[in-house]
Amino acid sequence: xxxxxxxxxxxxxxxxxxxxxxxxxxxxxxxxxxxxxxxxxxxxxxxxxxxxxxxxxxxxxxxxxxxxxxxxxxxxxxxxxxxxxxxxxxxxxxxxxxxxxxxxxxxxxxxxxxxxxxxxxxxxxxxxxxxxxxxxxxxxxxxxxxxxxxxxxxxxxxxxxxxxxxxxxxxxxxxxxxxxxxxxxxxxxxxxxxxxxxxxxxxxxxxxxxxxxxxxxxxxxxxxxxxxxxxxxxxxxxxxxxxxxxxxxxxxxxxxxxxxxxxxxxxxxxxxxxxxxxxxxxxxxxxxxxx
Amino acid sequence: xxxxxxxxxxxxxxxxxxxxxxxxxxxxxxxxxxxxxxxxxxxxxxxxxxxxxxxxxxxxxxxxxxxxxxxxxxxxxxxxxxxxxxxxxxxxxxxxxxxxxxxxxxxxxxxxxxxxxxxxxxxxxxxxxxxxxxxxxxxxxxxxxxxxxxxxxxxxxxxxxxxxxxxxxxxxxxxxxxxxxxxxxxxxxxxxxxxxxxxxxxxxxxxxxxxxxxxxxxxxxxxxxxxxxxxxxxxxxxxxxxxxxxxxxxxxxxxxxxxxxxxxxxxxxxxxxxxxxxxxxxxxxxxxxxxxxxxxxxxxxxxxxxxx
Amino acid sequence: xxxxxxxxxxxxxxxxxxxxxxxxxxxxxxxxxxxxxxxxxxxxxxxxxxxxxxxxxxxxxxxxxxxxxxxxxxxxxxxxxxxxxxxxxxxxxxxxxxxxxxxxxxxxxxxxxxxxxxxxxxxxxxxxxxxxxxxxxxxxxxxxxxxxxxxxxxxxxxxxxxxxxxxxxxxxxxxxxxxxxxxxxxxxxxxxxxxxxxxxxxxxxxxxxxxxxxxxxxxxxxxxxxxxxxxxxxxxxxxxxxxxxxxxxxxxxxxxxxxxxxxxxxxxxxxxxxxxxxxxxxxxxxxxxxxxxxxxxxxxxxxxxxxxxxxxxxxxxxxxx
Lengths: 291, 308, 321
What we know:
The complex is a heterotrimer of chains A (291), B (308) and C (321). With 291 residues, chain A is an all-alpha fold. Chain A has helices at 23-45, 82-118, 120-135, 138-149, 153-161, 165-181, 184-190, 195-231, 243-250, 259-286. Chain B has 308 residues and is mainly alpha-helical.
């Protein structure tokens, strides 16, 4: 039977002109880049070791409020350089938030895939856990675990990783089910592919953009949780320092030296604001189905 | 409707059981409270006596069952620090917490919902943008930062209001505002998107195309439908009336449940922590249950529907 | 000739529940289907949507386990879905889907997807260009993504992927119904060509009688989960024996038709509330009392041996003669 190659009509991939991100999002990106640079280059740009005391310059105000350029953001009650402590705190907070977000995404996605793959009792168990997570405010859960299990950096990151795991689990399960029922995943499975191949090579890349958007939306929440717990003195413990931890200790000097507290507070607000703006923008651009 | 109700009730019971089990598991995983409370240098006889007194020497499943039945009968143990019943310790703090969270909830509703509706009805207007920017800001400013800023301005600089404590109603103003603003932002954002979604539906366009006055379209068709998702978030806010003030109570030295929790965690007073955990979970689950039932009333489609 | 695939009395139920404590209603999507596929032959399976023909296709491929009955491939029982043996067997039996865009991974190129079954089964991926050429795709289209191809081209890619491991059986589930009418004939010709060239057995599932007639060596008509008639396509469509087939055939538009179209009475059947006796009786023009009480079995007709599940099969033939 003559089966001539079809005429060479090629359909060009749709090229949508990508508008530049709005000004606010651009500002967010710049701020975030600055924060990342501080976290990465911390030791190089930090004027002092963050624990070094300068007892002759205690509670010295920042430049512009009567302080000297030696300590641009002033010093705390022990004469420690606020800028250096801020840089160290940014690094700690970002590392914790990033680690926890990744832990949550990996855990949630894995459980979601397990639920979608095995169905039945496994799925029921995962969905019951999802219900359970949604039924208690996470801060209370975190406080309970910290009370019972004590505090260490590793545990703290894992604990914060439990935040929002159920969102990834819901997304991963739902999308995997729909891809398996009629779509590409069912087709690949029917080619004889192993579950590893179906989930790793096909489903995961297909839902990655949705997961990344969810991570971007969860990231500021994790920063807020970390700083909240550290503010209460139950998160990052001295001598390590984080943004919330700095605000917590600076609180005692609110009347005499508000800069100790204001510098990290501004960083927290601007960072969460930036990531939220970027996340909203990414969601609108990449995945309008998420809301 | 009855079936729907029974199913939700069953689900609430399962979730509550999971919370109790969770509390027990973490308790077991936390190691031996005898070492923690008595200190590792205590004499072995004293530790043994402590273990027997608290029933820590029995097999785990016995401990679980007795734990479970104790929780069911309302016996949540005694504070390991001062020996008082944990539940008494916690319940006597509840009024103080509600004194902050109830006015704050009212503030959230009064500001958040109208702002969200207004923003949705005037989409892309200057007011909408303002509401959205404020909403994002309200969400991203942590309550402890907001609270401390308010203290700095109104207590330290202006000296209008006290910075902490619980002596008079004036002491409650700053914490209530702190709690209310953040929640109002979340609620405004949520209401706006629920409204926008409803306004984009074909039945709204149909109603306005067939000549129904826009006022009536909004009040008869859009608002009731947008109320459905909004009820969920309000339910969550009601459910967290007890737990929602942990940070703010600490900022303003307000002697409520939240502050008790923070001190209990710092002191590892496990009975108190557990008691608060269970109480909060029970409130939350009850609130969710009520929301589900309201859903059933608001949304006729759900009345005979299945769970998933 | 020994059978490539044999299905005996397949039953597939789905339980539908109304509410948590509601009585669960059994929905028999497939209710006692037996069929045999011989190497190099095509069996057409027709019926309206919801009659269980797609479920039959999935049961035959072993993607679902039947609640009763068994499938045997080359004399051996079908292994459990997902087992290693089942996965190995995929190289021997493949599927062409209704919606080619849904069946392709939109993040991988056509070439990578056609190569995938070869990678999975440890075969040489150098065959990809030849496979593409075999279904009428150009070599440069291997680098394209699914959304860059037309519907017909995508279905060609799905067919190339299905053929990659040289299967002995191809199940085509409504392969042309999602395509433009102008493309349908091309894809039909391709399937027929492939079937003849490679000598594979094919189960061709469709609601399109003309398409089924074009490719099939035998045809089976399904109604509410059962096969009601089976025979040579020309004979079945020229002189349908079952009243349901008669109604289906009469609905084909054709030039200069003398007789009127048989319009079925009543609603389309609901598999959850299966009528007693012959499931077709509420819509049948010839319904006799016995049909309500007793379900007819698929049996060879006395005169020519065509399999028909109707109490009146022999009577009606006598009347027509």
